[in-house]
Design brief:
Layout lengths: L7 H20 L4 H17 L13 H22 L14 H27 L4
Amino acid sequence: MAVKKADPREEILGQERVMQQDMRRLRANYPENAAYIQCYVEDACDRMDYEGSRMYDEHPDKYMMRKVCDSIHSQIRRDSGRMGVESGFCRRCGNLPDEALQDLIEVLFFNEVYRRRCRRRRCRRLYR
């Protein structure tokens, strides 16, 4: 009886699913501020996630990356003010100093960009 060889693509996709589940489990433990900001970061990265995006350049443009982080910062401040910090909409984000908020946004953003770049590299191997 011949042994059926597993398709390497299925194996890689299975590994990718496991990694995604692991990431979701870890993110469930994020502090309230980080989880709140992560939603904005993912939304910004989703808009940048297309073929030919500068996010996937070998050396992404620092100015462009900083501009995206500044945009996320402005949007969080705008939404926090509109929804009202007292309403429970990110109770602590409204009280974070701008510099600390900006630093947290940048760390989460660059981490998300790195994660997506790694995923894209892994997935490219599937279709070569």
